[in-house]
Amino acid sequence: METVRxxxxxxxxxxxxxxxxxxxxxxxxxxGSTIARDITERKRTExxxxxxxxxxxxxxxxxxxxxxxxxxxxTILEANPAGAALVGVKDPAALRGINxxxxxxxxxxxxxxxxxxxxxxxRPIVEPFEIHLEPAGSDRRFIHVRSRVIREExxxxxxxxxxxxxxxxxxxxxxxLESERQASMGQVAAFVAxxxxxxxxxxSLLSANLAREAKDPAVLEKLVxxxxxxxxxxxxxxxxxxxxxxxxxxxxPVDVRGVVEAAIEQTGAFRMPDVRLxxxxxxxxxxxxxxxxxxxxxxxxxxxxxxxxxxxxxVTVRLQSxxxxxxxxxxxxxxxxxxxxxxxxxxxxxxxxxxxxGLGLGLVFVKQVVEGHDGSIQVISxxxxxxxxxxxxxxPSDKAPAKDTKAAAPRTTPKxx
Length: 417
Prior knowledge:
The chain is an alpha+beta fold. The protein has 9 helices and 16 strands. It folds into 4 domains: 43 residues, no CATH class; 103 residues, Beta-Lactamase; 70 residues, Helix Hairpins; 162 residues, Histidine kinase-like ATPase, C-terminal domain (Heat Shock Protein 90, 2-Layer Sandwich). The longest helix has 47 residues. The protein is elongated, with a radius of gyration of 36 Å. A hairpin with a 7-residue loop joins strand 7 and strand 8. The strands form 4 sheets. A 6-stranded mixed beta sheet has the order 14-15-13-12-10-16. The termini are far apart.
């Protein structure tokens, strides 16, 4: 038993009492013996340990960085709230007993396992160790990880993993590099356009003069081919020049439905004979702050791509208003895009088309315009199952009372003649 006693000097001490019975030769109880041990220092040490554990627990719980304690097999022993939030779980306790590998995409597993093995065997490692997470309902996140092995006497070693989401920093770096690359490309494009446009103009004038004078059908046919090649070259120069022009937008309250309809009308020449155009537009005007010219140009690019990718089937344009944003979606039933190409789709000079049909700068322009509106663009596509490009734009004014903008029944435009 433990008790508190008062010493002669008035100081309180904690005493552990061990009481043992005393018996005579016949085994009869004749008294007892007491051994007292001063355990004040031990109690003080235990109290300090408890306080230290409480402070650690508090720091663990409120830490801004995701923190996990895992065993040597990768099983989660503890996770703090930030750790649970990082992997898309509300309750940290729900992660106990789950192997950390179950939360990683398959392609990240082997490198993560090797990192843990090297850590436990005290082999050199490079930190921060970068992995990618794909929480349900969220985009891919870039995570930097730092870890340390904790070895305590009498227990198996375990690992403290501290993970930080560096996606915003990665995005800032990407934007900076993209800006520098765009500036360099703009300088090259301006030079190339200047050097090429003059001979292209001369080719056009000379071809036109020859066409007026030529009588031989074979010569005229070749002149038509020459002019077609000239137009292809001029189109490439035009796409290059689009990179040198500022994509700043001037947003004014406009009827977005009208902008979409104008873009549809402008792309009539690109429609294939066997492609239906379906318009799912609101029956009432949808007013939002948009740069009408820039947005129309962006939609023309998306529609042109959709028509060119769809030999037969349909292209759908859908405009919707939801709370504080609007969405414009262009859906096609065409050839679709494979995952590798989809990941690079908005990079300059990436295209699924023949070079004669463009340099792969149209979607770069679209992305610049959308981001200039503080919006975003997403693509969903599978090879052989078509593609859906969705533009999401903020619409703060949408909070004010407005007419019903719920999409009316789809309006189908007949196939092109």
